[in-house]
Amino acid sequence: MPLKRSRATAFIHRQPKAEMETIPRRPKPQHPHFSLLCCYALLIVLSVPRASAGGPIKTVVVLVMENRSFDHMLGWMKKLNPEINGVTGSESNPVSTSDPSSPRVYFKDEAHYVDPDPGHSFQAIREQIFGSNDTSASTPPMDGFLCPASRVYVAQHVRQRHERLPA
């Protein structure tokens, strides 16, 4: 039995592509705090008095990057200025959040592989914050960041090893 089409659908299918009207796309919604952050940065720039011509600072640049925390970008600056609330190297994550005796991986500045684009899905974020899909903890332990990264790392090495195997 052939599929029945509505009159409108049949008409659309008979039109050549060049004659079809294009539907305007709605602009992609921005992060709700993005506009506020831009206004705040602009307010700071405009409210800071201009330095005299002889001052050492001529330009201040505020760089905001998606998925990049202060610790990721400038955390080790604590070595230069102890007043910065940066990293010390004692920060760690367990290899497995489901195993209480799991070894821990400590924060270092000598990573050989860093996932440039960590998971953005709701499940990936929940795993990073709670360590699993169990969100019953009253305070998130914030210890699940290594699990998704280790899966990407293992997948990367398996693919590279497979590519090097003789045919």
Describe the overall structure.
With 167 residues, the protein is mainly alpha-helical. It has one domain (34-48, 58-164). The chain contains five helices and two strands. It has a two-stranded antiparallel sheet. The longest helix is centred in the C-terminal third of the chain and has 19 residues, at 146-164.
The biggest sheet amounts to:
2 strands, antiparallel
| Overall pLDDT | 69
Strand content: under 5%
Helical proportion?
25-40%
Order of helices and strands: HHHEEHH
Shape summary: elongated
Unreliable stretches covering 5 or more consecutive residues: 5-15
Helix/strand/pairing class, anyone? Answer: mainly alpha
C-alpha termini separation: 49 Å
Summed up, the helix count is 5
Q: How large, in whole angstroms, is the Cα Rg?
A: 26 Å
- Number of E-state strands: 2
- Give the strand order of the largest sheet, numbering strands 1, 2, ... along the chain: 1-2
Number of domains: 1
Keywords: Hydrolase
GO biological process, one term: phospholipid catabolic process
InterPro entries: Alkaline_phosphatase_core_sf (IPR017850), Phosphoesterase (IPR007312)
Pfam family, one: Phosphoesterase
